[in-house]
# Entry
Amino acid sequence: MSISMYQASVPVLVRGLTNLQNILGKAEAHAAEKQIDPAVFINGRLFPDMLPLVRQVYITTDTAKGCAARLAGVEPPKYEDVEVSFEELHARIQKTIDYLKEFNAQQIDGSEERQVTLKMRSGPVEFTGLNYLLQFVLPNFYFHITTAYGILRHNGVEVGKLDFLGGR
# Structure
């Protein structure tokens, strides 16, 4: 049995975003319980030259919505990157989940050989759909979720491996 491009992308991205929602929810509850300004977490970094939590969420959602759109051969929506509170970050993630759920297997399956071009600061980067998903999207997506998790855990939020992995 083979796995489809749809199965390897949309449900995986929705699950990761849902888990990120739950992790952010724990951070929000922790901030309230300990009377910590939520901005401490939202602007938290693992190291001074690394991006803060808020940017980790921006990049995670941008990667997810860009993946589904590009594999389906449509232009991804643009987000303004203005969210600065837990409530706004939750809304952004939910907007992305809702967007992903608009796609179906017929739109994405068969995109293995579709040409995907990313406009990077260093210039355009070309992929086939399969390489884009497996070598760019999924590693990038999980890197930024992992970094968000690490920022929150480093700052005392009680999250564990099962929060990252989510329910079965």
Summary: The helical segments are 5-34, 38-42, 53-72, 86-100, 105-108, 129-154, 161-165. The mean pLDDT is 96.
